[in-house]
Structures are given as structure tokens and as C-alpha cells.
Amino acid sequence: MTTVATHEVFVYLSDWMGRTVYDSSQHASGKIVDVLAQAGHMFPPIRGIVIRLDSRKVLYRLAANELNHWLITDALTVDPTKYQPLEPNEDEFLIRDWLWDRQIVDISGAKVKRVNDVQMIVGDVSYIVHVDVGFLGLARRLGFERSVKTVAKLFGKSLQDELISWKYVTPVKAQSGAPLRLSVQLTNLRNLHPAELADVLEELDKDERTEIVRAVGAETAAAALEVADEDVQKSVLESLTADESADILEEMDLQVAADVLEVVEEELAEAMLAAVEPETRDDITELAAHKDETAGSAMSSDFIQCHPDDTASEVLEKVRILAREIESFLYIYVVDDNEEFKGVVSLRAILTSSPSTPVHTIMHSRIISVTPDEPLEDVAELFSTYDFGFCPVVKDGRVLGVISLKHSFEELLPHFWKKRND
């Protein structure tokens, strides 16, 4: 133990496990086997201890200054008349049961770690502050900490605790099969970059992935699965119900959704398609119908279009509404009453024009586009030549979709590479 301030110390959970508690007559009453904490806080406060009696476990809820008194007297004295059945409240969890040897997500590094010990600060207010994921934490639990440090010193090494602040910790498994309800921890997961969350999912097993995906929700899960490996996509979606998988599918970029349907089992793919909204289903089906290595296979049907007579302010209002559903765009595609493609207007031109400016006066009518059957090699050539960020896919004068360099980079990269080395 290291003293921080008067009557306030850092304590490892392993320091308490197996310690004897006494009644007021100093008769041994039982041994501590776990500690109760309350979720929903940045640092969960300690609410009680679990004591093993001869044949059962009981819960002893701690009074306001009881832990502080223990620090002063160094005697763990309890009142056996206050023993309760071991029934934590819905927002409480048992630290040892939930965390020891369990996997957690280290949000600060977006890595999956295994917990070897838990560090608490004990005093007037007591709460969890860190988890220990290092070798020294395991040695402490097994009673070999001093020996390990001595051996390390002989070899000129200095072992340090490997601590992660609780505010960066998200347990992978819910306690006793209950849903993850730690709001702080879920917020941490949802704030991860999709690629980081995808990396986390790749380190977990099938059941753990499913639990995390269900906990973070369809929108966050979709963003992560869009950039995850195919085996992770398959594992997660096949572990969920068809309705749950369909909810995730609807949140995905349409082109990625079409690709995902080719990864999962055919029966699930059909059930997922049947469960999504009809409009989304039609879009995904159309994208899936295009041959591989063609523009149609790489395009997205998420784009914004307007009429030549629309004003800049009308287009801007449309952008405000649709931007919530479309991840990225630089251009608005101009079509007439017959849906014929007439030109493009940049978002920059819209923003810098007078609100009453008609679109047809600021749009570009010289259009460079590709057909849905265009080979990706030719598409890559256009992106390279014209430095595109987006390229429309047009058939019979109508815009079917848009190829985004960002979303299609993996498909186009081999062709960029080939061109560079020709």
C-alpha cells in the first residue's frame, strides 16, 4: 500500500481477497471474497464487501466511514447483524467476479487486455481507479510479487505496474449474462474511431463480438463493420438475429452492404434483405447485380441531386436534410424533370453564391462520367487523370450512383499500382 493522504490509500483488490473480518468481540466472522461497486460513475464507488461464511456468501454493505475506520485501526471489523443475501442492485457489480481474468477494452489504446488485478483508492470516499493488466499484477495475486521483483532486480530490470485508468476501461462481458449497462463505458466505445472498434472486434471471440455489437447499437456497429475484415463481418452478422443484422445493414454504406450480403450465409442474406426497408432493399439488390471489377460494383446510390431551376438556398436546405444520411459529398448532381443528367454543382459554389442564384447558372455542364459496366481499370485511369474525389455512374442519361475515391480506394488501388508500374 502507498499512502496518498491522511486516511487515504491505494489498495489492490488482491490485498483484500482472503482477509479475515472480525465481529466487535474480535472473533473471526469470515473472509472477504469480493467487493461490490456501483456502475454509472466515472470511477465506480465501493458499496460493500462479499464475505464467505462457513457454508455461504453474504453481502455486507459499508457504512459511510467504515472503510476509513478500517484504515485507522487496520482491523476489518463488521457487524454480523447487518449481513444481507448476496443480491446486488441492478446498477451494481462484483469487482472480482466481473473483472479478474476478464477481457476489457483499453479505450486509450483501442486494445483488448486481460485484467490481472484492480486498484481502488480507499478513504472517506472509496472507488475503483485503475485495472492492472501487467505481469506484476498477476504475480501479486499469486503471492509472488516480491520474489518476482527480486529476481528482476538481479538481472538489472525494474518491473512496473501496468495500469489503465478506469475511465478508459470497458468490460467486454456483462456480469452474469446481463446486458452491458455501464453508460460511461458504452460512451467510450461509441467514441472510438470505427477502425479502432473494428480492431477491437477482431481481437475478440464470437460471443464477445456479439455482446459488444449489441451494446453499442446498430449505427456504431455498422460503421465499424464497414471497415472490418470479412471474417469479422460474417462472425458478427451470423451471430445476431436477422432483424438485428438488418438494422446494421440499413446503417451501412449501400455498396458495403451489398458486399456484406455476399459474405454471410445465403439464408441469412435473404432474411436480412427481407427485413430492411423496401427502398433500401431495391438499392442493395441493384448494386449486387453488377459484375465485379466494374464501376457498378464500386458505386454508391447515396448522392444528392437537384433541379436546374432550384436556387442555391433551396439546394442548401436539401443538403442540410440529406447530409444526415449521406456520409460524404462534394457535388450535387443536377437533373431535369425527366431525370436526365444535366451537370454538377459543387457544394463550394452553393455556399459562396447568393441564396437566390439558380443552379443552372453556376453548374458545370461538361460532364465526365462512367457507365456501370466500365472496367475499374478505366475508372482508376479517370481518377488519376482528373484528380477526382467522386465520379458519377450514368446509364441512358440518368445518374445511377457515384463512385467515391474514399470508399472505393481498396478496389481501385491495384489499378493505380498497375498504372504506376507500367
Helices, strands, pairings?
Elements: E1 2-5, E2 8-12, H1 13-16, E3 20-22, E4 28-38, E5 46-52, E6 57-61, H2 66-73, E7 84-85, E8 92-94, H3 95-99, E9 103-106, E10 111-114, E11 117-122, E12 127-132, H4 135-142, H5 145-154, E13 163-165, E14 169-171, H6 183-190, H7 194-202, H8 206-216, H9 218-226, H10 230-239, H11 242-251, H12 254-261, H13 266-275, H14 278-288, H15 295-298, E15 305-306, H16 312-322, E16 331-335, E17 341-346, H17 347-352, H18 376-386, E18 390-395, E19 398-404, H19 405-421
Parallel strand pairs: 15-16
Antiparallel strand pairs: 1-2, 2-11, 3-4, 4-5, 4-8, 5-6, 6-7, 9-10, 9-14, 11-12, 12-13, 16-17, 18-19
Helix pairs in contact: 4-5, 7-9, 8-10, 9-11, 11-13, 12-14, 18-19
Can you give the mean pLDDT?
84
Outline the biggest β-sheet: 6 strands, antiparallel
User: Could you tell me the strand content as a percent range?
Assistant: 15-25%
What is the number of strand segments?
A: 19
Low-confidence stretches: 1-6, 176-184
Number of helices: 19
**Backbone shape:** elongated
Helix content: 40-55%
Radius of gyration: 30 Å
Q: What's the end-to-end separation, in Å?
A: 67 Å
Class of secondary structure makeup: alpha+beta
